User: What shape does this take?
Amino acid sequence: MKVRGSLTVEAALILPIVLFCILLILNQGLELYREVTETGKKQEMWEESDPAERFRVLKLLEEI
Assistant: This one.
């Protein structure tokens, strides 16, 4: 039983599919990381503005 080039041909077909799957997973990971950093920046903006404190000050001024 002689097999010539069969494994090479199969590897040539399977290797691009495996690489594509790995790159797809990496791309999704980077995209999720970018979304998390953007959400973190928005969270910092809300923590700096502190709308609840501003509301309390306005209510206190209305009572006075």
User: Anything to note?
Assistant: Residues 6-49 form the longest helix (44 residues). The chain has a mean pLDDT of 84. Residues 11 and 47 are 54 Å apart (CA to CA). The chain has two helices and no strands.
